[in-house]
Amino acid sequence: MYKGGELKLHEQPVSGQKNKFVVTEEEVYFLPVASGDVPRFVDILAEVFDLDDAEVVEVLDDKFDSGRLILGYLEADGGLDIHVPLEQSEYVNKRLKEVLGG
């Protein structure tokens, strides 16, 4: 668990702030972050998934490798920093447009 306490995840980015995000095939989770003590992506995933279950972790690894689990940052100015495998897929671009618009 995140040492800073419970995380408050949002379904939409918090405007005017930098947001960390996790996008799955069905859901999206945003976490506004400030400088300083920033939760890791694994902390966000642990809020949503049972990371103590090896099968869940294996499925998440497969989804990340295939681009079906997208991690990244949405900057306050709208810029993106996406953490995906080296080969970005059409799916990743399509899913991000669904979630973020544009």
Textual characterization of the structure:
The chain is of the alpha+beta class and 102 residues long. It is built from three helices and four strands; from the N terminus they run ββααββα. A hairpin with a 5-residue loop joins β3 (70-74) and β4. The longest helix is centred in the middle third of the chain and has 13 residues, at 54-66. The radius of gyration is 13 Å and the shape is globular. 15% of the residues are buried.
Blueprint (SSEs and pairs):
Layout: E1 18-23, E2 28-33, H1 41-48, H2 54-66, E3 70-74, E4 80-83, H3 90-100
Antiparallel strand pairs: 1-2, 1-3, 3-4
In short:
By secondary structure, the protein is an alpha+beta fold. It contains three helices and four strands; from the N terminus they run ββααββα. The protein has a four-stranded antiparallel β-sheet with strand order 2-1-3-4, with helices on both faces.
In total, the number of strands is 4
Major sheet details? 4 strands, antiparallel
Query: Radius of gyration, rounded?
Result: 13 Å
- What's the order of the H and E elements? EEHHEEH
Essential attributes:
3 helices; alpha+beta; 102 residues; 31% helix; 4-stranded antiparallel β-sheet
